[in-house]
Amino acid sequence: MKRRLLALVCVSASLASGCGLLPGGSERQTVTVWLMKDSASRDFLDRFTEDFERDNSGIDLDIRIQEWTGIGPKVQTALKAKGAEATDGPDVIEVGNTQVPQYVDGGGLVDLTLESVRDWGSRDWLPGLAEPGKQRGHQYGVPWYAANRVVIYRKDLFAQAGIDTPPKTREEWLTATEKLDSGGNQGIYLAGQDWYTLAGFIWDEGGELAEEAGGTWRGTLDSPDALRGMDFYRELQALGDGPVDADEEHPPQAGVFAQGEVAQIVAVPGVARAILQADPGLEGKLGFFPVPGRTAAEPGAVFTGGSDLVIPENTDDRESAIAVVEALAGDKWNTELARAMNYVPNKTTLASAVAGEEGVAAMAAGAAQGRATPTTPEWAAVEADNPIKAYMTKVLNGADSEKEARRASERITELRATPRA
Fold first, then answer.
1. What is the pTM of this model?
2. 113: which strand partners?
3. Cα(345)–Cα(361) distance, integer angstroms
4. What are φ and ψ of residue 48, in 5° steps?
5. Residue 2: per-residue pLDDT
6. What are the φ and ψ backbone dihedral angles of 52, each rounded to 5 degrees?
7. b/e 256-283 (16+ beta carbons within 10 angstroms → b)
8. Confidence check: pLDDT of 307 > 50
9. DSSP SS3 for 147
């Protein structure tokens, strides 16, 4: 946050005609906001800035776009800055929802629990965004937008297979996919190491990737619930030709889908744009439905990706920074962002705002069952080593699932067994 220093200007200007200070002699404030590349369009940012500065006449916004690559160390440096470096640093930062715990762990974020409960309607926030932003009962990350996986499917291939409506339960999904997996077509393209999709199946069964006990974390892929989630993944993955030793980006599944022999993939709706770029002939043939749950009562659990907004403790004007977060995450501009970028709004009560777009509507329905990875800074080490991927490949190649799950769980425990202070 930079204060606009008017003193030197006034020394000379006042000799002639007085100094044009703001009412009450106050200085204008500049709130520096770090947002990530492509999170919001330029049009959205221009409109938001104009509206915010009009409603907050003493504040100017300085929005600086950041690259995701290397953002972690850059944010850590900003949070630890002092003196002049802190003054020139960010006052509001967009961070990935699962990144919040590692920044909280360093002690550099403002506690926004009071505002969240009293003013911002936190009870309606999507759990997959809100939970990672909360540590030890305190809210540090404020949900901004979400995206999660849905099933993207070929309407024409479904019709050819006699499937009139998308499945709503896992059993219906397996039955439909078996019908689709014929005549040279893949019923579904599901890469063997798509662990985010596996996580949803595990959560649906009541399992967890890891659990905290006695101040430390241990892997729980070997629990009966988690093993049932892996069993379902194995059944579904076998109804296509996805590689068992690669994830959904190797090769990019949009390109595989566009080749015309795949009936379904599990992906965020935005992948449809890449599919249509690769094969414009699929225009009008793509449909979307939420990942089915165990029953038709609600969609399946899904990993919720997206962003939270945080405020560094070293900001020199918390009040103005809080005003920016309140506006960005508030109903008006959060709805505008969701419509502009095809995101899921940060509240379940705002889902109707995107109901007119099929892919986003399916995503919003699934987001109500959204989850995030364990809220601990040590989880970053798990993803870097990622024993879950290796475990999946071994099981899909025929290894004993209990034995491999136990090994993977032990590795997760090794990576995360750091006592909590």
1. 0.83
2. none
3. 11
4. -65, -45
5. 53
6. -65, -45
7. bbbeebbbbbbbbbbbbeebbebeeebe
8. yes
9. strand
**Beta strand pairing call for 302-310 and 142-148:** antiparallel
**8: enclosing H helix or E strand:** helix 7-16
More confident: 319 or 353: 319
Phi, psi of 92 (to 5 degrees): -140, 135
Among candidates 15, 40, 267, which has minimal Cα distance to 150? Answer: 267
Classify 409 as helix, strand or coil: helix
Question: Does the pLDDT of residue 262 top 80, yes or no?
Answer: yes
Q: Element (H or E) spanning 287, and its range?
A: strand 286-289
pLDDT > 60? residue 21: no
Residue 10 has pLDDT above 60, yes or no: no
Q: 């002639």: which residue's tokens?
A: 16
User: How far is it, in rounded angstroms, from Cα 188 to Cα 257?
Assistant: 9
C-alpha span between 252 and 196 (Å, rounded): 15
Q: Which residue has the higher pLDDT, 34 or 27?
A: 34
Q: 67 is written with which tokens?
A: 């690259």
List, in sequence order, every residue forming a beta bridge with 2; answer none if it has no partner.
30
CA 353 vs. chain centroid, Å, equals 19
